[in-house]
Amino acid sequence: MSKKTVVVIGGGAAGLMAAGQAALCGARVILLEKMKRPGRKICITGKGRCNLTNNAIVEDFIDHFGKNGRFLRQAFARFFAPELVTFFEETGLRVTLERGGRYFPTSGKAPDILKTFLSWLATLKVDIRTNSQVDSLIICDKKLSGVATKKGKISCDAVILATGGASYPATGSTGDGYRLAQHVGHTIIPVRPALVPLEISGGIHPELAGLELRNVEVRLFIDGKRKRQLFGEIHFLKYGVSGPIILTLSGDAVDGFRAGRKIVLAVDLKPALSQQKLDARLIRDFEKRHKETFAEILRGLLPAQLVPLCLEQTNIPADRPGGEISKKERKRLLQWLKDLRMEVNGHRSFSEAIVTAGGVNLKEVDPRTMESKIISGLYLAGEVLDLNGNTGGYNLQAAFSTGWLAGRSAGTKNEHQASNTRKE
User: Fold this and answer.
1) Does residue 144 register a pLDDT over 60?
2) Cβ atoms of 95 and 106 closer than 8 Å
3) Domain spanning 5-189+357-420: CATH superfamily
């Protein structure tokens, strides 16, 4: 019996994993990558370190993907973080668990992940063809029969669409998969940047650019109603804000902004202190340092870069002695420290977004196999799907897990056997 031929479109995290798993199932695998080399996005992920996955339990993992997270339950039941860690260690890549439950290559070098994959695929004799952009999928009677590239047609038994999203387009993620899927009948949920820095109305005070604050709380308001709040780290940039908690809040902010709603961020600079305790501290500071100026006292409360903004927004003279600060002015400072407001008037583009929100409608994909419910023989994996999670290794694990399941399903001669390749 001749081997099944599987074509994988896209050489990112999902595509590399899918290609190898399909080959392990006995298929002849051709991986088509439109760039000069595969895995370019992997090499820049996590500032070049690449947060592979997280040690959170399955339920917590799913929660990090919001309402669509339950789609991943089947893939995670078959290939999850422990299996991914074992996979890398068995293929020669050591990984290390760091704070926040995040796994990284022990070397600290993201390109080592790509090297590991390429070495593994070479042993499996996967045919990797670069500079090979797919123009269309060839369909006969709602069954996939091949792909058309600029270099010609390739006949096959199955295709795994793992082209990524639209974030970091310089790495090759330019939304090609959405076009290919839509052309054969799939519905595309509108795509937009996710895990993306936010732009602040009027920009950021010049003194704040480059400031990083830890242990603050940020509340997100949409049309005056509090939507979410998170504790952690925020980074100030010339045009706005970024950092872990901002990126996590950005999904709701982007959706709200695009819907024409008013988006406001409120920063609590002293979340460890209640209003009453912070007020008592201010009273003590003003009494103890009554001869010092307000600006000098602020330097004991805030990073130096925040002082000019505080002076400007509280409208308290910088040279006023602490002993002459009125109760009204103290209350104004207290309010500012607990509720620094910034209005969001935009977000950065796909070129700065970590992932893409939107994509192929999950209702049209079988979560047990990753096969299309519209086109037989077409499988989908990774960011091309309408899935996006928080930072912390969640998105890459979803790519690896869906790629693993798509590869196993596409490569197995009897697709129904794929769901039993790992014990529940």
Assistant:
1) yes
2) yes
3) FAD/NAD(P)-binding domain (3.50.50.60)
CB atoms within 10 A of CB 83: 16
Contacts of 284 (CB under 8 A, 6+ apart): none
**Half-sphere exposure of residue 261: CA atoms within 13 angstroms, side-chain side:** 17
Token code pair at residue 39: 């895995």
Closest CA to 394 of 79, 67, 54, 97: 54
Q: Where are the domains of the chain?
A: 5-189+357-420, 197-347
Place of tokens 């090609």: 176
Percent of the chain residues past pLDDT 70, beyond the cut = 97
- What is the rounded CA–CA span in Å between residue 290 and residue 286? 5
Give me the amino acid identity at 50.
C
Q: Judge if pTM exceeds 0.70.
A: yes
Over residues 364-391, the pLDDT tens digits come to: 999 999 999 999 999 999 999 999 999 9
Rg (CA), the chain: 25
DSSP string computed for 245-313: HHHHHHHHHHHHHHTT--EEEEEES-TTS-HHHHHHHHHHHHHHTTTSBHHHHHTTTS-GGGHHHHHHH
